[in-house]
Every structure is written in C-alpha cells, then in structure tokens.
Specification:
It contains three helices and no strands. By secondary structure, it is mostly helical.
Amino acid sequence: MLRKAFDDQTMWYNEFKAGRECVEDEPRSERPSTSTDEDHVQQIKDLVIGTR
C-alpha cells in the first residue's frame, strides 16, 4: 500500500531493499536526551505551571 502510494521513496522500503533485516534502531553515538534528567523535567514543570 505504501509502495503504491509513494512508489520506491518510502524510507523503510529502501532500507529493507538495501539489505536491512531488523526493525530495531541501530545504536547511536549522540548524547542522551536531557528530557529525562530530573532537574530539567522539574524546570519545565515549574515553567509550565508558572505560566498558568
């Protein structure tokens, strides 16, 4: 269905056509997200609640 709608331009179609066999994300070397850091979460909560 996606191939019919988007031809060969869909990201996953191209990945599997190129030989990918797994649907899991590959490991990344980038820095971890700060959104799970408790200090940042609390700062955002304070900002959101403070503007109500």
